[in-house]
Amino acid sequence: MTQRIPRAMVLAAGLGTRMRPLTLDRPKALVDVAGRALVDHMLDRLGEAGVTDAVVNLHAFADRLETHLKQRVQPPRLTFSDERAKPLETGGGIRAARDLLGDDPVLVANIDSVWIETGAPAIPALMESFDPNRMDALLLVTKTEDALGFDGPGDFLMDAEGRLTFRRDAGLKTAPYAYIGVHMTDPRPIYRHEAEAFSLVPAIWGEMAARGRLYGLMLEGAWMHVGDPGARDAAERKLMA
Fold first, then answer.
1. Are strands 53-58 and 8-11 parallel, antiparallel or unpaired?
2. What is the pLDDT along the chain (241 residues), one digit of tens a residue?
3. Domain at 8-240, CATH homologous superfamily
């Protein structure tokens, strides 16, 4: 298992269309929840976990987001991957940042997830549990029934050893586990993908799952998906309770 603290990739380039009208004048990353911008919630988690360096990709309201982030003084140190010309989706964003990330395992985080921990700190547990000999990616997951602000049918089945199978590959309409937006990954399969703009699902994770190298780790806590204004309000109430 890896012992080094990885670089992080924070995916903050999204348009945030479901979050309108809150994103009419700002990126989704700067939507406020309980007194902190979403991106700061995630960067604070990374810093608390010991992550010293993070790459943030920029597209929507890029200048405003970059200005905000340059005012941060607490860890991690930030560099920026510029997608102003064209959004590259999750996989393409990581691929475009290769020179900043390197080829070692990377911690990848969305900005629309917040959570309350009731057990082991999630990000340190994820880093400690990632085993590149068995895994290409290790995803932080939660039970769909416990998720707040998540209205999907679920993403995965998970076996006793933590291997993930996509719901659709099992021929099911619902699945018990949902990805909560943070994972550890070997970035090299992403770098090898030929498209410029592409999503990790299904292009990358589908292949990893087919080879039995996509794993999950349960969050010990309560996850809130902040995907729209109503979910933002619900997350704020939960965090401030």
1. parallel
2. 445 789 999 999 999 999 999 999 999 999 999 999 999 999 999 999 999 999 999 999 999 999 999 999 999 999 999 999 999 999 999 999 999 999 999 999 999 999 999 999 999 999 999 999 999 999 999 999 999 999 889 999 999 999 999 999 989 999 999 999 999 999 999 999 999 999 999 999 999 999 999 999 999 999 999 999 999 999 999 999 8
3. Spore Coat Polysaccharide Biosynthesis Protein SpsA; Chain A (3.90.550.10)
Q: How far apart are CA 208 and CA 206, in angstroms?
A: 5
Closest CA to 136 of 179, 110, 106: 106
On the 0-12 / 13-18 / 19+ scale of CB atoms within 10 A, 17 is exposed
Strands 53-58 and 177-185: unpaired
The partner residues of 165 in beta bridges, in order of sequence, read: 157
For strands 214-218 and 137-143, give the pairing.
parallel
- Domain residue limits, the chain: 8-240
Query: For residues 235 and 226, what is the distance between their CA atoms, to the nearest angstrom?
Result: 7
CA distance 91 to 50: 25
CA gap 91, 89 in Å, rounded? 6
Eight-class DSSP state of 74: S
Q: Output the CA torsion sign for 58, 114, 16, 144.
A: positive
CA distance 158 to 164: 5
Q: What's the distance, Cα to Cα, between the start and end of the chain in Å?
A: 37
How many CB atoms sit inside 10 A of residue 5's CB?
16
Tell me, what amino acid is at 122?
A
